[in-house]
Amino acid sequence: MRAMPENLFSKSGAWVLVLTLVTSLLPQAASAAAAEPTPCRLRGIEHEALCGSLQRALDPAHPQGVQISVQYAVLPALARNKRPDPVFFFAGGPGQSAIEIAPQVAAMLARFSNRRDIVLIDQRGTGRSAPLLCDPDDLSLPLAELFSFERQRERLAACLTVLKALPYGDLRFFTTTLAMQDADAVRAALGAERVNLIGASYGTRAALEYQRLFPARVRRAVIDGVAPADMVLPASFSTDNQAALDALFSACEADKACASREPQLRERWRTWLDSLPRTISLRHPLTDRSERLTLTREAALGLVRAPLYAPTLSAALPTAIGQATLGRLDALAALAQSLGGRRGVRMAAGMHFSVICAEDVPRLAAATDTPGSDFGDSFAALYRETCAAWPRGEVAASFYTLSPAPAATLVLSGGIDPVTPPRHGERVAKALGAKARHVVVANAGHGVMALGCLRDVLFRFVDAPTDAEALNVDTGCATAIPRPPMFVLPGAAQ
């Protein structure tokens, strides 16, 4: 569950399909071994940053045991008289490095940089903080191997063996609660009394957990694309993916040109999907050679899932799906490829599964989500099988509860988000109570705070002097964001 999903052609690994608490432990104090942050340069950042690290016990119950280094970076405020409350940004995934996406975060939060420090923490298991990385796939391999779910499972099993052999390879201790205890240690090391939380996708779960553990330390919070602890990620994905795909078909049916060019697309798609597996021809994205391979139902759904995250891409999905039903998969594959990982940014697969296997999969059997008619339970099956062998951290029952928000909290949802749609944000906002406000951007996908006017809303919400003023910030511009028009091939009837 990340702000920008991985897909079958991702540079971060073809097997990543999205792209998702130790009981009764008291939060650790900041380590005495913490070093003062020192000047550093971050790729893609114009101004000098400050980089620091904290030594943290892998297992808080054994503070003298295995230690890990939690790395963080500060993008310093430009003004001499800066605000005392920095912005803490929590990245998505789970498994994304906050430091590696510093250029994107800095651009999105540019207005904050004048008066507030922006703090990026590589959550334990990601980036530079005891990373749990699997070897990336060799993307020059034949597509038949990259598309194979069996090979994906084999690579994950091999990765697990490698990760467990690391000096910090007890994978039970890479959970959201422990990571938020690390985050508060960073806050203490920086000398900030209170912080402003901004979380995206899985980062919303992190922000909500920080708020639960350290309510007195939160001045303001923004959560975008809400993935709460009680979400049961592998189950909800199928439900929410299906809803987004059905909405796309409805949008095509309501668009005269799309409906004319791709008549009865919903029915044609399902007939084609039910015909899989079948042998197809597809051009390799690196070699440009045409290859013959067996396309499975799971692989086809993976190709469709990725473009649904971004409305600018999903606008072309009806045409790409129409072509696929005629045996031409290149357009669909190209759309999926376009959401691949950015250069130099890798998802920490080991951290991803450590979180999901501990926090979500144990609750899978009791999940109430109805599997999508197309997507079924194949996604859940992959996690269930992988997590059967994955070391599992303990999770406190209180982790799954939401108490009234201690500070003004802005909850943001994209109306056509295929992974964290408004139903999750609505439930969370209701539980957070009077200090929470839920804003739905009807025509947006996964992640809305980077959209034009929403950046200004975000700034004014955090910058407002009081909670009451923050909650009354004008968000009307969100309703004016249109859905991109459907792309149709030339020659469609008008």
3D architecture notes:
The chain has about 500 residues and is of the alpha/beta class. It has a domain at about 40-140 and about 155-230 and about 400-480: Rossmann fold, CATH 3.40.50.1820. Helices cover about 35% and strands about 15% of the residues. It has helices at about 100-110, 145, 150-165, 175-190, 200-215, 235-255, 255-260, 265-275, 295-305, 310-315, 315-325, 330-335, 350-360, 380-390, 420-430, 450-465, 465-470; strands at about 40, 50-55, 65-75, 85-90, 120, 195-200, 220-225, 280-285, 290-295, 410-415, 435-440. It has a nine-stranded mixed beta sheet, sandwiched between helices. Strands 8-9 form a two-stranded antiparallel ribbon. Helix 5 (about 200-215) links the parallel strand 6 and strand 7. It is globular, with a radius of gyration of 22 Å. The chain starts with about 35 loop residues before the first strand and ends in a 23-residue tail after the last helix.
Summarize the structure.
With 494 residues, the protein is of the alpha/beta class. It has helices at residues 102-108, 143-146, 149-164, 176-190, 202-213, 233-254, 256-261, 265-274, 297-305, 311-314, 317-325, 330-337, 349-359, 378-388, 422-432, 452-463, 467-471, and strands at 38-40, 49-57, 67-75, 87-90, 118-121, 195-200, 218-224, 278-283, 290-295, 409-414, 436-441.
